[in-house]
Recover the amino acids of this structure.
């Protein structure tokens, strides 16, 4: 057995039915895990789950809805299995000049990425702490590490993941629960295509500043997330791993 195997253990992946979340689900299943995809559209979830096969299940869940995590987590643990891995991947993008961003728009972005992910993480985390075992990954962004124009609320939310990761890692590490983050660069998904559509020259600029060239694929984030959750990363906690073709190096 290699230290990258996940041995039928259960991963909950928010926003798991599309893009990067689906790539993470594919990588986890390839490593022998079971997955529960959680997002808002039953139709999209059912399609993704069918594509993934018998190792996948889904639950309709809006992470931004306050007070809903406990019932989701207890239902999954009662009917499927204890949750070994939580991947906070659900996200919404907001791209516009910072002076035009309203408080309400910022609140919506923070509700999904920060408040929603934190509520779910503490619900799952309490059970992981009781069992003395578990691993949490936050899908942050290159905007957690470097400046990108016109994404001020999104960047605030993704940067919050760095503090949350370090705090939870230091608090939960002694009790067997690891917490890490990944900062994806430009990864080919609906979100990225939409973000770049407003500025056709941006794609060229991005490709120029990416030493490894091209855009990443969802499975690139999948393999990195798998590493962080696997026994191979048993001595890794509190880090944010960039997976961006080198774009955040600044050359
Ligand atoms: N694609 C990129 O270049 C890139 C770069 C850095 C970070 N990210 C992050 O990766 C994650 C996945 O994004 P993606 O690129 O796959 O785009 P995507 O739009 O395909 O995925 C986002 C997913 O989150 C789900 N979601 C949104 N709000 C939700 C809510 N309230 N409750 C539950 N689910 C919700 C969406 O339904 C969707 O499935 C996001 O957190 C995004 O910010 C993406
Ligand atoms: O580079 C840009 O203009 C972007 O808005 C990129 C996005 O922030 C990125 O793809 C999502 O995190």
């Amino acid at each position: 057995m290699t230290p990258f195997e996940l041995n039928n253990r259960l991963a909950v992946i928010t926003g798991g039915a599309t893009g990067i979340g689906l790539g993470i689900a594919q990588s986890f299943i390839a490593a022998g895990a079971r997955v529960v995809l959680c997002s808002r559209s039953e139709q999209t979830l059912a399609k993704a789950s069918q594509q993934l096969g018998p190792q996948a299940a889904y639950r309709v869940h809006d992470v931004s809805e306050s007070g809903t995590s406990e019932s989701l987590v207890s239902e999954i643990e009662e009917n499927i299995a204890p949750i070994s891995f939580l991947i906070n991947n659900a996200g919404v993008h907001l791209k516009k000049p910072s002076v035009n961003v309203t408080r309400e728009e910022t609140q919506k972005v923070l509700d999904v990425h920060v408040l929603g992910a934190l509520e779910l993480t503490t619900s799952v985390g309490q059970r992981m702490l009781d069992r003395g075992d578990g691993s949490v990954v936050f899908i942050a962004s290159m905007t957690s590490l470097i400046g990108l124009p016109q994404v001020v609320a999104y960047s605030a939310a993704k940067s919050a993941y760095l503090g949350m990761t370090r705090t939870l890692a230091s608090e939960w590490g002694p009790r067997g629960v690891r917490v890490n983050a990944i900062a994806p660069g430009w990864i080919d998904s609906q979100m990225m295509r939409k973000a770049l559509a407003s500025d056709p020259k941006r794609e060229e600029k991005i490709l120029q500043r990416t030493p490894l060239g091209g855009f990443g694929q969802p499975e690139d984030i999948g393999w990195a997330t798998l590493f962080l959750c696997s026994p191979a990363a048993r001595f890794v906690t509190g880090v944010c791993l960039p997976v961006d073709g080198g774009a955040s190096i600044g050359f």
Summary: The pocket of 2-keto-3-deoxygluconate (ligand 2) is lined by residues 93, 95, 141, 143, 148, 151, 186, 191-192, 195, 202 (CB under 6 Å). The beta strands are 10-14, 34-39, 56-60, 83-88, 134-139, 177-184, 240-243.
